[in-house]
């Protein structure tokens, strides 16, 4: 049997990186004479060497002695001058190890192993890139830190371009519309917003933040129909207790600039590990220099924690996604950890639940029901304004009593301007450990969710419904500058269906309207991708729109042509869209980013085209057929075809036969010659 792996990246220091490992022996010396050997793995890192013995009763060695007998416990520290001798199994590797220690080697990841990538912040600066790989090893999920934002952006662009299955994250506005219309649950929407705001479960300093929802942790029954059951979502935690808030505001008024109302944040590594200590004890030990917190300050009770958030002088923390998930592990001491003894004599074990929860599973289930309740659906936008929206900064934040320490905000300090390396590390440590405000996603008030006031009609009964019984109206917002549709908000989530009248001798059918993709002007062309998950449409005013059919939402709106868009199509791999316009242009659009990456021009309108992802054959207003070289951005061949405009084209799957039709009332058959 192989020994269990005990090493993790948590054993590394701030700004330290793991590079490689070698099979080796730790030589125990008696004086200067070898006494015995302990087999294990020698980990080479950028600032240290770590030895992990195969025998779990032996401790891992890296300044601290930890995991002796494979028990997660406070670190054992030996002080004084120590000498360690390690012997590699392959002696020829000694020179390589020494060379590695003297320089910074490269960790290699192949693109085929990368599943998805996200731009992230590091230390409140746009320097991070999160990479998710398929391999289940130490580099399965990694953060890359850059020194310049442009370097990060360049690498993201190149990786996203070559990843076969990479899909760009939707915009906050797109998710907002889905949530408004009921396509996303409150839980799903908050996860998407956290991700867009650079919050990740792989970064304790920017862990996803979720709100306290329930205000009642004392009753034997949880009444979700009573508004008093819920926390006021229009206020930050620090403003929920009026008496405490008045004390904080008095201090705020007397404080010199830069002023802040709260001396601690609502989300920090310490708060996250406060909740997760029972499933991530090693993280807590790493954060607190090898020690657990005082037993009376541990996460002992839901009610106690909520009370302290309301009354505590410096406790303003929110919750984490686990409170609304399915895994109860963080509430139960299943690892049998020795987390200490409280002043009353009782050991710290499982988290004490409120009276209305019969079990940890019941607690999570009722918490989820509370999060998805009508009350929360009607008020969640108020909390979003505080955490991700316009009340996060500026005068609106002051008015909402939502002002935190300047170092928690992006732009609060420029680390690059600090020349002293020790001062820079100290400042970075403070930023990472104190708490970071999420990236601002909205600068205007967030609209509330559309909550139906009457029951939705079933598809079978909608035929008899009148317009008065089922209103269907939409608010459209346009930009004066671009004169383009910016946002479309539906005030009804009814499902409509049409049933044709029965005709003698015919079978009755029912047609269900699955989606209605609204445009601000007439639509002249549409095309589906091969998987029928994406749709591209072209309008009379020259705009190309790319839609996600799985959610019926607009991904990109690109002004490509100065006149009507005559034809559109996806490449076979769905990574690009080609459009032809009455302005004589052919435009190539990147589906992932919505950017026009190429534009080719001709002297006359191009009415239609066919392409295999590489070569393009278009039909012109004059009747000419044009062969385009996309890489060279030019017309490579002209073929005289019809005597009037070419109006339609078809090509077989083998790309060997082509049929064209024109205004000259002719259909022509063509055979490609190679």
UniProtKB/TrEMBL annotation:
Residues 164-449 form the BEACH domain. It holds the Pfam family Beach. Keywords: Repeat, WD repeat. Residues 18-160 form the BEACH-type PH domain. SUPFAM superfamilies: BEACH domain, PH domain-like, WD40 repeat-like. InterPro entries: BEACH_dom (IPR000409), BEACH_dom_sf (IPR036372), BEACH_Domain (IPR050865), FAN-like_PH (IPR057496), GRAM (IPR004182), PH-BEACH_dom (IPR023362), PH-like_dom_sf (IPR011993), WD40/YVTN_repeat-like_dom_sf (IPR015943). WD repeats lie at residues 516-557, 558-599, 639-674. It comes from the Eukaryota. This is Protein FAN. PANTHER family: BEIGE/BEACH-RELATED, PROTEIN FAN.
